[in-house]
């Protein structure tokens, strides 16, 4: 957990993998699998402790149920690590080749595990190792193969360190040379600019409402919320883009049409070209409610969130469990997801790739916007998790999206981290979390493609499978070490 934000001791992730790989070739498979499981159980149960706030404090679930759910989620994630450790150790005991395990099989299986838990059962890619390197030059691999390429480089680096430690002088020297080549290559890739400016800078204003989740839906606070956001426009003038956070307007859009019309009038009067705001929308066809991003001004596109949060925005449980949740006064109603392909908002021929909250941690799901999209926009509400480290963890993952596609990221949150991030993942401007603020700045619309934009996760998956296949034949024919 300490390797990730807000602690950012990035080297700890590589050291942790070193230790796990070391165990893999020094302990029997059963012990190794148990160690991998315990490592992950501690990582997720401690790193996700903020779920207690959303499940118990905000949603009102009993303490016993809250602790049980966090434990079950952490245990589910730990099972991926258990299987990974078991496979790595079994292959080592079959091949007796340290080089095979540390340079090929181990790193490949580690990243394959991260990729699998990023999409199985809706996916939960939290704590993928590559995210811990967002502030180091190892993240320069993100535009090539995305987050999993960065994780792979981390795992290979860990394997090389263990090989240096365990091997005889000749092999250790070769491993050290390979590590230096890998690190120098990673550093040198930072000079490559995969994308280029499409047009001049545009002005943007990002609003952070800082409305506590416990107050957000109170009838007595509704008018205050509408006034708060409307007043943020009074100080603006001649802006290209203004962005409000996820569900900034805590209502269904059809029920606040007069307010939205008033906002449109203010935009015209203030010469603000585009406002993007979070609001709920109603599907007249089937009565479903959607979590949406509405564009007012130069565009009238409404984007509906596609990747919903399990047990937060939809409940994949039998009706008997849903009825029990209802009796307990707990959230139990499903939100409708948006279509996989939707139109993009735009301003001045600049196309905007939108995401809402949690779905921006799934990098490959955003690639359908490119190469047409020129900037990323994410609206988020981290108020569910109170004043915890969840907001910084989420922001760390959001920054990786900017690096992967070589675009600016404009991020407006309710109580999280509101920021402008450049195409290299660097923070250009950010607000203080948990406080009301209006963050003003500029961004440059970008064009062009990165290798990740073209190939997505396919490239790193191909390389991993190739590594496993070559490693298999290497293990058969190579003399035992």
Description of the structure:
- With 481 residues, this protein is α/β, with parallel strands linked by helices.
- 46% of the residues lie in helices and 15% in strands.
- Strands 2, 3, 4, 5, 6, 7 and 14 form a seven-stranded mixed β-sheet that branches. Strands 8-9-10-11-12-13 form a six-stranded mixed β-sheet, with helices on one face. A two-stranded antiparallel sheet has the order 1-15.
- Helix 1 crosses helix 4 and helix 1 packs across helix 6.
- The two termini are 35 Å apart.
- The mean pLDDT is 93.
Mind sketching the topology for me?
Layout: H1 11-24, H2 29-47, H3 51-58, H4 63-95, H5 98-117, H6 142-166, H7 169-188, E1 196-197, E2 202-208, H8 213-216, H9 219-232, E3 241-243, E4 249-252, H10 257-269, E5 274-282, E6 289-297, E7 302-304, H11 319-327, E8 346-347, E9 350-356, E10 375-380, H12 390-405, E11 408-413, E12 419-421, E13 427-430, E14 437-443, E15 446-447, H13 451-455, H14 458-477
Parallel strand pairs: 2-3, 3-5, 4-5, 9-10, 10-11
Antiparallel strand pairs: 1-15, 2-14, 5-6, 6-7, 8-9, 11-12, 12-13
Helix pairs in contact: 1-4, 1-6, 2-4, 3-4, 4-5, 5-6, 5-14, 6-7, 6-12
